[in-house]
Amino acid sequence: MSTRCSLFRPRSFMRSLLSLLALCLLLLSLIYGFIADLSPRPRVLNDIQTLHRHNINCGAIYDMDPVEVGKSLIIRRKHVVEDTDESLFNFTSDCPSFTKSRGYDDVCVSEEEKDFPLAYSMVVHKSAWMVERLIKVLYSPSNIYCIHYDQKSSPQFISAMEGLARCLPNVFIASKRESVVYASISRLKADLNCMSDLLGSEVKWKYIINLCGQDFPLKSNIELVSELKKLNGANMLETSRPTQVKKERFTFHHEPKEVSFEYQQLPVRTAQLKSPPPHGIEVFSGNAYFVLSRAFVEYTSRSEVVKDFLAWSEDTYSPDEHFWATLVRLEGVPGAVPRNQPDITDLMSKTRLVKWQYLEENLYPPCTGTHVRSVCIYGAAELRWLLSYGHWFANKFDLNVDPVLIQCLEEKLAEKQKLFQSATSNSCKG
């Protein structure tokens, strides 16, 4: 009995109990901290850098670390509502605070970048913060950026775009804007409106690149400059002989009609055959996105042949997907691709990487985000694949699908910008 009692020592028991309580508190604090890390930091209007910056290790995401990738999936499942268009407008009401907080004042420009300015045509209609982040990751004071917002966009979005143009001296709103109808001539005209303004600007840009609001670069600005110099005046875009199905897009007259799904209006094929293309032009097929030299844009902007072809394309389906692909095949245009040259497919052209659902497993690894109309909206687990594939831009990205991927792309591109600048220039000019 006395032996049993001697094993129970009050002081020893209390010490053990306190140690157990301390351990429990430590575990609780760790769990709480982990949950807090997964949540975006509080909104602070005067410090935009804290907005939706997730506590994630992008290096580990790039290396496909299963723990960090799993953490990104937890963040994604929280369905964080991204910042509103109105919040960007409010922030740009104080331009000095906005440009300082977002780092526009500290952008380093190498001599190579300064001597090779780029122009951007950005046709956008929603998600103001996504547009801002796209501009920011591509931003250089030597470049120039034209924003064409859809006339149907919300007042909050339009105000946010106007705010960006007010705060950034080399960002401006297109002087003429379209009410863009999907797959219609208005989408093509939106880019043409920006092109006209960009040709009239004081910036003597070398190449123009067009983007939409769900694009994101896979190369930093200095890398793009280096790649574009290698083109030596050539253009970069898809241009292929059309399939029979695609030929119907421009051999029949199309009329805009109301439809019952998300686009509300679409060009619909009629039974009326169109006349052949003017000037004996052979029509090629491609996509809406391009990298074009200044010489090409200047030439086509004053060409009567091009004007006639544009007018002929008015009643076709998705004319932006054959207009540029055809023009680049015309004899005599700067950087022309000869008509007898083999097809340049979307995989060969580096302008835009798109992952199609029906080609996954065969040409691409599976989409780790989600699909919209058979197109992958990328997830964080595709970070390494995107950066190593070789294309200059990719589509599609969505902050509401995977904000971690966009944050990590921003971080990786900033690292590459500094690395390439240090290797090519001894100093930068802000």
From TrEMBL:
UniProt pathway annotation: Protein modification; protein glycosylation
Keywords per UniProt: Glycoprotein, Glycosyltransferase, Membrane, Signal-anchor, Transferase, Transmembrane, Transmembrane helix
Stated name of the protein: Beta-1,3-galactosyl-O-glycosyl-glycoprotein beta-1,6-N-acetylglucosaminyltransferase 4
Record GO cellular component, one term: Golgi membrane
Keyword Transmembrane helix set for record: yes
Record Pfam families: Branch
Molecular function GO labels: acetylglucosaminyltransferase activity
Membrane topology: Single-pass type II membrane protein
Family the UniProt entry places it in: Belongs to the glycosyltransferase 14 family.
Subcellular location(s) of the protein: Golgi apparatus membrane
Keyword NAD: no
